């Protein structure tokens, strides 16, 4: 809302969604949590509103940052079988309505993203299973470390790639794998991986990115990465990738 400020409202409601409830939502009928984020800012024109979920699209000038990362937000909501609805008019502010399906269970199982035929052991001793996790968004570092813990690994996370390299060089042998974002200030993911390989040529390194015109899975593998993740990374993909290189068994 800029220097002029304004009012930001956040609220949550329980809602039953059917085909008549919210237009334009590609979600199944059922019980949902509705999260409403409403501001009194400048709003958006229709042409801008149509593009807000495109990777790296922003209306901000270079010195003002890169926006909210709405493509990642949209992907995370979709991965949870949810939906998002946007209302905005120039001069009248913007409202985001996020819809997340309500779980039937009292406690949500963090492993429900794994295939029905597979489950990942969380009783494994994490000693000796230390993973270096690097992303320039501190919030995504926290999410990544939580995911690692839920599948039986320990994680060390950094939002500064140069700091991550410095910490790695102190004791390279204690890590079993590295997961790094691609687009970062200081050292990009490819550069960080190159420096790490000079010390530990055998360590599996996974590249993670939201969007890139210069690198994809084929390019990443060709450049020596053990795997490639598109954000948002799912628990299933993370478990399969790490278990595959660290030789931990997926229990069936």
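-> sequence recovered:
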């Amino acid at each position: 809302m800029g220097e002029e400020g304004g009012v930001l409202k956040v609220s949550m409601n329980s809602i039953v969604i059917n085909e008549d409830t919210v237009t334009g939502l590609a979600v199944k009928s059922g019980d949902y949590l509705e999260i409403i984020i409403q501001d009194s800012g400048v709003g958006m024109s229709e042409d801008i509103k149509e593009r807000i979920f495109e990777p790296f699209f922003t209306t901000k000038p270079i010195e003002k940052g890169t926006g909210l990362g709405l493509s990642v937000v949209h992907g995370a909501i979709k991965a949870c079988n949810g939906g998002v609805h946007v209302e905005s008019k120039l001069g009248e502010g913007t409202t985001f309505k996020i819809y997340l399906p309500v779980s039937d269970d009292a406690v949500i199982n963090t492993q429900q993203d794994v295939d029905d035929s597979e489950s990942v052991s969380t009783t494994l001793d994490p000693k000796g299973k230390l993973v270096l996790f690097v992303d320039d968004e501190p919030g995504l570092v926290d999410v990544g470390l939580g995911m690692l813990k839920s599948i039986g690994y320990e994680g060390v996370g950094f939002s500064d790639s140069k700091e991550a390299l410095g910490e790695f060089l102190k004791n390279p042998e204690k890590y079993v794998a590295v997961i790094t974002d691609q687009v970062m200030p200081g050292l990009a993911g490819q550069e960080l991986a190159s420096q790490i390989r000079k010390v530990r040529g055998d360590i599996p390194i996974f590249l993670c990115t939201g969007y890139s015109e210069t690198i994809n899975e084929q390019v990443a593998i060709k450049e020596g990465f053990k795997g490639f993740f598109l954000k948002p990374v799912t628990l299933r993909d993370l478990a399969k990738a790490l278990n595959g290189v660290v030789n931990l068994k997926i229990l069936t």
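The helical segments are 46-49, 70-79, 138-150, 161-170, 189-199, 217-222, 235-246.
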